[in-house]
UniProtKB/TrEMBL annotation:
This is Myb-like domain-containing protein. Its main location: nucleus. Residues 304-353, 354-412 form the Myb-like domain. It comes from Phascolomyces articulosus. It comes from the Eukaryota. InterPro entries: DMTF1_DNA-bind_reg, Homeodomain-like_sf, SANT/Myb. Residues 78-113 have a biased composition (Low complexity). One of its GO terms (molecular function) is RNA polymerase II cis-regulatory region sequence-specific DNA binding.
Length: 507
């Protein structure tokens, strides 16, 4: 070997050499840090404080020891419990002595060494774990209340119907109380109790109101008469109370005519309205603030045997698109093939063909665009807004007209200037709750179904419709025995408690 010849190292030699040098460097740094700390001088500048890590490791080791001791104690208790069970089942002295000896050995060994058990005790502990898991599953099943998603002629929107075993307070959580009280059967009227039996009221005679004399096929004529002030009637959706009243009215008149609900569908609702005007006059007489056209069209749609069939499946959506293309969007023929109503088919088709590309929460930029779009449109074209126009010209099909309309209905009022503006739940304070509940109390509503959250806004207080609804339900559900209270009592309680809270904050 030549003296000046360089030494060539393999890759393994290089790696080992690098590791050894790294360890030496670490040990030197540790010694220097300890010497500096002992002398009172500041420690050398390093990225990590190894003393801190050692303290943390000591704490972790202590926690592990405590955990091991607690686990050993639990194992000891389970072992003694299984031993007692075996003693009761077998009733033999041999098993009794065996279990006592194992129990004594475990008590002596808890402080020194971890406990080990025989295979029999291991199987018993496995059984206990299985039973614990089963108990957890049953509790989870109890928490998940048994409910079915459905809709009907009284509650036309999708909602959950719970079994009778579920308490009422759980059923009304985050929704109106009336959902827990109404049970609707597709083929029968909602109730046949003695309280709702037929009375001696006289329903005969010609209608007194002008809007009760004729059925208008085009709803725009009714809207124009209301807009011009010729007719002083309600427009829009029927309330739950109105739908219950309508059902009771139809039931009473049906009894007089000896018509069941099934026979009513086959005769009066299946045919043109003109041969049955006497029937419709009797029904509409109980609704002075609704037109005959509204009662007729709603009854014919809501009481149809194919109405409210629940959610659409993916297969039904595909079939709907194929049939709409085949019959050139003539939804009367499409409805016959799908066993659904014409209105349900046309609404679903519009939803499928106008699907938005954006389904996430609305951003601040989008809300700004929405405010600008509505402001510019109303200045040019008036208050009757075309949401299709706004969707095409301002959102480039990222949001569909239905999304835009619902969002504006929810937050539109909060863009006005006011002292207090609440757009989401983060802005809800005790003071906001007090203002909201005082506004709801002033309106004098008698039931939760009468609440219109758009009307709680005032000149100095603006709140998002959805935020107002969620706030009311959340605070109502927090009251004790709220399921046994009526709405006026609930709102009075909420106002009283919030006033006391605001006064306490001032002090």
């Amino acid at each position: 070997m030549v003296e000046n010849e360089p030494i060539t190292l393999t890759t393994t030699h290089k790696e080992n050499h690098h590791k050894r040098s790294k360890k030496k460097k670490k040990s030197k740094d540790r010694d220097n840090a300890l010497n500096n700390n002992s002398s009172g001088s500041p420690s050398s500048k390093r990225k990590h404080d190894h003393g801190k890590h050692t303290d943390e490791s000591n704490k972790k080791s202590k926690k592990r020891k405590i955990g091991d001791l607690m686990g050993a104690k639990r194992n000891q208790e389970t072992a003694s419990a299984t031993a007692k069970n075996n003693n009761n089942n077998n009733n033999t002295n041999n098993t009794h002595t065996a279990t006592t000896t194992t129990a004594t050995t475990t008590t002596t060994n808890t402080s020194t060494t971890p406990i080990t058990y025989e295979s029999a005790s291991d199987s018993d502990s496995d059984d206990n774990e299985k039973t614990n898991q089963m108990n957890k599953r049953t509790t989870v099943q109890k928490r998940n209340k048994p409910a079915t998603l459905t809709q009907n002629r009284i509650l036309p929107h999708l909602h959950f119907v719970y079994e009778d075993t579920v308490d009422k307070k759980s059923q009304i959580k985050n929704r109106r109380m009336i959902h827990a009280d109404i049970k609707v059967n597709r083929d029968y009227y909602i109730s046949d109790s003695d309280e709702e039996s037929d009375s001696d009221d006289d329903y005969s005679g010609a209608p007194l109101c002008e809007w009760h004399r004729k059925v208008y096929i085009n709803p725009e004529k009714i809207k124009s008469k209301v807009k011009n002030g010729e007719w002083n009637i309600k427009t829009g959706k029927f309330s739950v109370e109105e739908l219950i009243k309508l059902e009771k009215r139809i039931k009473k008149i049906g009894r007089r005519e000896n018509l069941t609900l099934e026979q009513l569908r086959e005769t009066v609702l299946a045919e043109n309205h003109k041969p049955h005007m006497k029937f419709w006059y009797q029904v509409v007489k109980a609704f002075p603030d609704r037109s005959l056209s509204q009662i007729y069209h709603h009854t014919k749609t809501g009481y149809h045997e194919d109405a409210y069939k629940g959610r659409w499946t993916a297969e039904q959506d595909e079939e709907l698109l194929d049939l709409a293309k085949k019959f050139d969007s003539k939804f009367i023929k499409v409805a016959e093939k799908l066993n659904r109503t014409r209105q349900a088919c046309s609404d679903r088709y519009r939803q499928l063909t106008n699907k938005p590309t954006q389904r996430k929460n609305w951003t601040k930029d989008e809300l700004g665009i929405l405010e600008k779009a509505v402001k510019e449109y109303t200045e040019k074209h008036g208050k009757s807004i075309s949401w299709e126009y706004i969707a095409n010209n301002y959102f480039a099909d990222k949001r569909n007209p239905l999304q835009i309309r619902k969002k504006w209905e929810s937050i539109g009022t909060t863009f006005d200037s006011a002292d207090t503006v609440v757009r989401n739940m983060k802005d809800v304070t005790i003071q906001v709750q007090l203002k909201l509940f005082e506004q709801m109390q002033k309106m004098g509503w008698k039931a939760e179904d009468d609440i219109d959250y758009n009307k709680v806004n005032s000149d100095d207080f603006k709140i998002n419709k959805e935020t107002a609804r969620r706030t009311y339900y959340k605070m109502r559900d927090s009251l004790h025995d709220c399921d046994k209270m009526k709405y006026p009592e609930i709102i009075d309680r909420l106002v009283t408690t919030r006033r006391a809270m605001v006064e306490s904050l001032k002090e």
